[in-house]
Amino acid sequence: MPHPPMWSLAAATAALTLLAAQQPAYDEPLRPQFHFTPARYFMNDPNGLVFFKGEYHLFYQHNPQGEQWGHMSWGHAVSADLLHWQHLPVALPEADGLMIFSGSVVVDWRNTSGFCAAGRDDRSCLVAVYTGDGHGKQAQNLAYSNDRGRTWTKYANNPVLDLGLKDFRDPKTFWYEPTRRWIMVTVLPDQHKVRLFASPDLKGWTPLSEFGPAGATGGVWECPDLFELPIEGEPGRTRWVLDVDINPGGIAGGSAGQYFIGTFDGTRFVADEPAERTRWSDYGADFYASQSFSDIPAIDGRRIWIGWTSNWLYANDEPSVTWRGAQSIPRSLTLRRDPDGLRLVQSPVAEIERLRLAPAPTVITGATVLPGSAEIELHVKPGAWTEAGIRLWNDAGEEAIVGVTREPLEVFVDRRRSRRAPFHAAYPARHAGPLAWRYGELTVRILFDRSVIEVFAAGGETVITDRVFPTQPFDRLELLPSSGAQPDARMWTLVSVWNRPH
Ligand code: FRU
Fold first, then answer.
1. Ligand 1 touching residue 243 (CB < 6 A)
2. How many whole angstroms separate alpha carbon 300 and alpha carbon 64?
3. Is 100 in the pocket of ligand 1 (CB under 6 A)?
4. 26-35, 259-268, 476-485: range with lowest mean pLDDT
5. How confident is the model at residue 501 (pLDDT cuts 50, 70, 90)?
6. Pairing of strands 399-405, 387-393
7. pTM above 0.90, yes or no
8. 146, 273, 481, 498: which has the fewest C-beta neighbours closer than 10 Å?
9. Which of 169, 187, 255, 316 to mutate to test the pocket of ligand 1 (most atoms within 8 A of CB)?
10. Which phi and psi angles does 354 have, rounded to 5°?
11. Does position 7 have pLDDT exceeding 60, yes or no?
């Protein structure tokens, strides 16, 4: 019998060095530096967004085995500030032929479920409500955690809501205080319907009502959310927002988010506008399956959501290596009234300002060096221009353009020439969203993060999220040539949230 090999000190050191080299450095050329990405492998929808005991939890649709969709499980990360994330082990793995599809997490403050094993003063625990996909159907399931989300137990009597349907998914659950019961919002994807259910204990569910078809119906409906939002400048007034994603049939092709504004009385959502009216949350190709956080303390009061920055047209083909998929910057939501009614307004959470390398921005006048992660703000005045904006580019002759046009008045992202050999036919495209002159000037706030561009125009009234995959980094920035007055342009370099103490 040969002896097992004895390791020399040199060999052991070499092995350790190799191991260290294999750790993700979070520095691959396309790896965003202030957006969440999985350490390795595939990610899609954000799931189970919840704030509990000082931590924001981000669960996500994850393939723990590969760089394409499959073996769906819930990946997990926590953060104290919505920006610096700590990766935790997979929270809910695929098992027994059941994949763990999208869903939500709530804090069961009063132990209505009986799952909470906490002490006398604290009866709370976390309960996940998710779709189990397998054995030819989709049904809603529960899992719970008594250790701040570190370990999870799947409920022994799953599923808790089973209509015997092949497609019935993506439960978003919240506590509705006026009737003191849980509400679950789900979709019947191919019927373009949202279905609401109620429960006293998260275990037994009774049907409440249905919404749809309405708005855009060119693809399946997925990942609904329902929440109340304040109306800016109208103290004490609120309206409810029903968010429903659609794939394909989105405004920029493929996957996209749409929303309806209306009322919710604990039983039924009623839209304010006619069913033919479609409102898009984002005019880019890469903002899908957004979900809002549950249980953000009232003292904070924000409604914050995160969306997956990809599109089912090419999600499996994005040319990133070792990891695939990124989440949007967390965005605060409000409603704003304009002559056309109420609309959803989104802004990056204020925490992002802490990532600015220096408080004072650099003023951009012509061409300049573009850092890998930056925030750029344009102020455009009315005047004799037809197009104003910025061009991000590199030595390989690749570019992305972000700007506004006057006729029609729109904000746009043009990524047609952003990669020499497009990896998918739908990738080279220009995406635009409507704007209105209302404030004397237009502001365009651009978050650039290596392969993510998020544009918030007119104070977040029109948003465009587009991924860009140049073959080498965009490292130059210049203002678009303009015959009229140039926009005021400023830029902050943003620091990485990975690997570096902050
Ligand atoms: C949306 C979606 C959900 C589903 C999940 C599966 O992107 O299709 O409807 O639960 O992804 O990964």
1. no
2. 34
3. no
4. 476-485
5. very low
6. antiparallel
7. yes
8. 481
9. 169
10. -70, -15
11. no
